[in-house]
Write a structure and sequence with these properties.
Helix content is 29%, strand content 26%. It has 258 residues and is an alpha+beta fold. Helix 1 (61-69) crosses helix 2 and helix 2 packs across helix 3.
């Protein structure tokens, strides 16, 4: 499965396997922040409870580090945003951490203590993440990946094309989340996490939780409209400047297309 995604991460690749519960995480790395092995994935939290594979970038992770350090002592191993994310999750929980995170990302987090897998996606779905159920005789496997080709590489995958999804594609020229072209395969919706346990895999009923709502943001903005055009222009310029500045933080050359 990870070999099928080598084009997304040509710099390195590794896997984590927990044989006790039949959980495996695979990762292909495109190194942007913390180019050394200290940024390699899958990555474990310092306390050993969590393991994460992460795709994307948390632009404000340095601010999050400082906030975490103000409350607890942290012995950082490196300077990667992946380490920032997993240590913040370890201290604050998944939902609270994601609400503080500014960036584009998709991730899978294995909680060894609770035996729970959490899949998550950024607010607007910039980074893709698919998951699905594959029948394997007497058992059901839940598989996930950044592209459908990774799921197709899973041994025994033969899910048929979903005719309802095909109709959506013909109508809209794309297939909206949470559906995909295959039966029993779905996209994680933007701004949500999916909690996975053995029990809800067997029932094909994994729990989706929204940590951010576009509708709520729009409603809040409509309650406090900007009346002055000059003020609006100044605010927009500041927001754009801040957004671009945050995305210039990298240990490799950065290009921008306008």
């Amino acid at each position: 499965m990870t070999r099928s995604l080598r084009h997304r991460g040509p710099d390195a690749g590794a896997c984590f396997i927990d044989d006790n519960v039949g959980v495996a995480l695979g990762h292909r790395r495109l190194a942007v922040v913390e180019l050394s092995e200290r940024g390699a994935q899958p990555m474990s939290s310092a306390n050993g409870r969590f393991v994460i594979v992460f795709n994307g970038e948390i632009y404000n992770h340095q601010d999050m580090r400082r906030e975490l350090e103000s409350s607890i002592a942290v012995d950082w191993r490196g300077a990667s945003d992946t380490e920032t994310l997993i240590e913040c999750i370890s201290a604050w929980g998944v939902i609270a951490t994601l609400r503080k995170s500014v960036g584009m990302f998709a991730f899978a987090l294995w909680d060894r203590q609770e035996r729970r897998l959490t899949l998550g996606r950024d607010r607007f779905g910039e980074k893709p993440l698919y998951y699905g159920y594959v029948d394997r005789g007497d058992t059901i496997a839940m598989v996930f990946g950044s592209e459908l080709k990774a799921l197709r590489a899973f041994e025994g995958f033969d899910n048929a094309v979903d005719r309802s999804s095909l109709a959506l594609f013909l109508r809209y020229s794309y297939i909206p989340a949470p559906w995909s072209i295959y039966k029993d395969v779905f996209k994680i919706e933007p701004g949500t996490i999916l909690e996975v346990t053995n029990e809800n895999v067997r029932s094909r009923d994994c729990k989706s939780i929204a940590y951010w709502s576009y509708d709520e943001v729009v409603a809040a903005g409509l309650k406090c409209p900007v009346e002055n055009v000059g003020t609006a222009v100044d605010q927009l310029e500041r927001i754009l400047s801040d957004a671009v500045s945050l995305q210039l933080i990298a240990d490799v050359p950065v290009g921008a297309f306008l």
